[in-house]
């Protein structure tokens, strides 16, 4: 619809040029400026060219229908601008942390298939990360992997440098990497607390700081942090994880205010109970009880989280959204059951699956 209206505006401008040929040079800049998203210029430029051609017809037939020589020259200027613009507006470059499995994988695939160049960060799952890259490339996209611990400043700097060396910039940052080290506070070791805070909170801080340096120079960028409803309502046995995710939410709101003047949008997504390898291990009786508390009768899917992230990262309609936290869950019930290995907790707007020995694999509770 937007492309059609722009093409209509171009026609109106061309008609006015018949009576005012002295303004024939005024069409080029507004046409391009009004139709290119600061993030996904290449994708929208293709839509613009298609819309312009389909609505206005081929260059020769359109020009021949207008006798005025000044209009012919203007048509040539507009078409030349639409051809040249994509050369200056490359596909968005995205860094996704913790992208080898779960939610991170779904996000990387969604953005890769949308035409982005994607750096797939992983900590240990190199094979899975390579598979994500191959799938993106199979769909015609570009991707590369980077193994590194985002809780370490040197690794983060090397990761951002890798993206810049390969593609020249960083347009979008998705902070997804995280771990769980669950246990009641009275029994929690300091190491359990610190590991979660270091990766889930300090890692987000380090990645934002490094990527924002690139974005600030260009005065554009989008950052999406994957938080959790646990950061909003808390959860038994996850004081460390809850504190880290609450910190991510506070960080998101503060950074959004700091970088707004540089046209950098910063938002957070707080998922509830999302399907994963961990949920697949649940017994039938436990799963049945869980699903009975969910109005939709099912778990959330990683691809659904990815859809929301894709909107925030790429869609021009999201350019006015910043400093917001999007809760992604589906129940207001409170239900607790304890199994010898798992503790499944539902608290207010939250579904929670705890596994004392698990690393974070895309399940945000």
TrEMBL record:
It is an enzyme of class 1 (oxidoreductase). GO terms for biological process: fatty acid biosynthetic process. This is 3-oxoacyl-[acyl-carrier-protein] reductase. NADP(+) binds at residues 98-101, 176, 241-245, 274. Pathway: Lipid metabolism; fatty acid biosynthesis. The active site is at residue 241. Residues 92-277 form the Ketoreductase domain. Its EC number is 1.1.1.100. InterPro entries: 3oxo_ACP_reduc, KR_dom, NAD(P)-bd_dom_sf, Sc_DH/Rdtase_CS, SDR, SDR_fam. Belongs to the short-chain dehydrogenases/reductases (SDR) family. NCBIfam families: 3oxo_ACP_reduc, PRK07231.1, PRK12826.1-2. One of its GO terms (molecular function) is NAD binding. It is found in: Plastid, Chloroplast; Plastid. It catalyses: a (3R)-hydroxyacyl-[ACP] + NADP(+) = a 3-oxoacyl-[ACP] + NADPH + H(+). GO terms for cellular component: chloroplast. Homotetramer. Keywords: Chloroplast, Fatty acid biosynthesis, Fatty acid metabolism, Lipid biosynthesis, Lipid metabolism, NADP, Oxidoreductase, Plastid. The keyword DNA damage does not apply. It comes from Rhododendron griersonianum.
């Amino acid at each position: 619809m937007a492309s059609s209206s722009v093409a209509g505006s171009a026609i109106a401008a061309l008609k006015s040029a018949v009576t005012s040929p002295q303004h024939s040079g005024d069409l080029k800049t507004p046409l391009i400026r009004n139709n290119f998203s600061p993030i996904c210029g290449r994708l929208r430029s293709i839509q613009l060219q298609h819309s312009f051609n389909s609505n206005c017809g081929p260059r020769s037939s359109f020009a021949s229908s207008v006798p005025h020589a000044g209009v012919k020259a203007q048509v040539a200027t507009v078409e030349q601008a639409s051809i040249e613009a994509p050369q200056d507006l490359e596909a968005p470059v995205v860094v996704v942390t913790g992208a080898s499995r779960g939610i991170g994988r779904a996000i990387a695939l969604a953005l890769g298939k949308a035409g982005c160049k994607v750096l797939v960060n992983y900590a240990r799952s190199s094979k899975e990360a390579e598979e994500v890259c191959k799938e993106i490339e199979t769909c015609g996209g570009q991707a590369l992997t980077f193994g590194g611990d985002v809780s370490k400043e040197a690794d983060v700097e090397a990761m951002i440098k890798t993206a810049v060396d390969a593609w020249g910039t960083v347009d979008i940052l998705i902070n997804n990497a995280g771990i769980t080290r669950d246990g009641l506070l009275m029994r929690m070791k300091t190491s359990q607390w610190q590991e979660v805070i270091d990766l889930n909170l300090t890692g987000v801080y380090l990645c934002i700081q490094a990527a924002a340096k690139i974005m600030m120079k260009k005065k554009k960028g989008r950052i999406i942090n994957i938080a959790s409803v646990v950061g909003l309502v808390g959860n038994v046995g996850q004081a460390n994880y809850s504190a880290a995710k609450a910190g991510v939410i506070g960080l998101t709101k503060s950074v959004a205010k700091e970088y707004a003047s540089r046209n950098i949008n910063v938002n957070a997504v707080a998922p509830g109970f999302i399907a994963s390898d961990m949920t697949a291990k649940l017994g039938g009786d436990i799963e049945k009880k869980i699903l009975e508390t969910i109005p939709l009768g099912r778990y959330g899917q990683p691809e659904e989280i990815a859809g929301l992230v894709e909107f925030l990262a790429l869609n021009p309609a999201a350019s006015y959204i910043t400093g917001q936290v999007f809760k992604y869950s589906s129940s207001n019930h409170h239900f607790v059951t304890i199994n010898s290995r798992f503790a499944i907790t539902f608290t207010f707007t939250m579904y929670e699956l705890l596994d004392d020995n698990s690393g974070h694999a895309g399940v945000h509770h």
